[in-house]
Amino acid sequence: MVVSGRQTGRPTLEEVAARAGVGRGTVSRVINGSPRVSEQAKAAVDRAVAELGYVPNRAARALAGSRTDAVALVIPETEARLFAEPYFLDIIRGVSAELADADKQLLLTLIRSDKERQRFEQYLAAQRVDGVLLVSVHADDPLPDQVRALGLPAVLNGRRSEAEPVAYVDSDNVGAGRSAVAHLAGRGRRRIATVTGPLDMYVARCRLDGYRQGLAEAGLASDAALVATGDFTEEGGRRAMRELLARTPDLDAVFAASDVMAAGARGVLREAGRRVPEDVALVGVDDSAVARHMDPPLTSVRQPIEEMGRTMARLLLREIGIASEEQPRRVLPTELVVRDSS
Q: Which of 106, 151, 163, 333 has CB 3.0 to 4.6 Å from 28, enough for a Cys bridge?
């Protein structure tokens, strides 16, 4: 049976959007009480909801006086990388501790393919979580914007660009590169190379910018032959270090944009007969357990990873409680921890 050109049964979000003449995301924002909607659009959606008799799941829960009390933490990586990199585990530890204090359930989600991304978007559209935390986002990642379009609060770990529109918690990545190079130059190193992260990630570009600023401040020329791109994995660090040694065998220091890549670089230097720090000084970023357990122990730029996770969760909980027009942003300081590798 058809009524007014529509199949009978429960109306869908898409039908409300079509009746109101707006996008699906606008309907979601209106239903979830987001202030990021014009009065005209809100009125159109309210009329369409009334005409169609649409009752969203989230509204039904609100009438019952409860939320889902669940928050999704999304990491677009494989299980192997998740458990191999201390960074992710420290973020999870911080987020988990903060959410436990607030009696919220943490749903850890790994996204490894477009199919899994689409399935997760459908899960979010069903309003099964109160908010989303996203880690390790790349420049072209559409998921943060899609989450916001559904009217859900979201907080990123890091940024996709300098003009990031979504709430985020980051660390001073430019300062990390500058302090690493200043330290190496202060120890008399003059051929300072770097192993970057993937350059489609803002964090990697910032650390590279800091490296270049550090060279300029030390009166050292920037040389493209001293820059090799990694991917924040140990094997990526190994590949980049081999590339650097082949191009510039006279290098005397390396700034790796993560401790894990520094560990890979350390292995290649040892295979090449280069002593650390006598022949090549080495500095990483994160100040993770990897840095403390390397031989020799690794000088590293500490970023407060667990505190970043806690801060992300606190910002998200605040957004869940009180929606605001202004997207909160936090940039936490970094600190150089000197050990025997430099």
A: 151
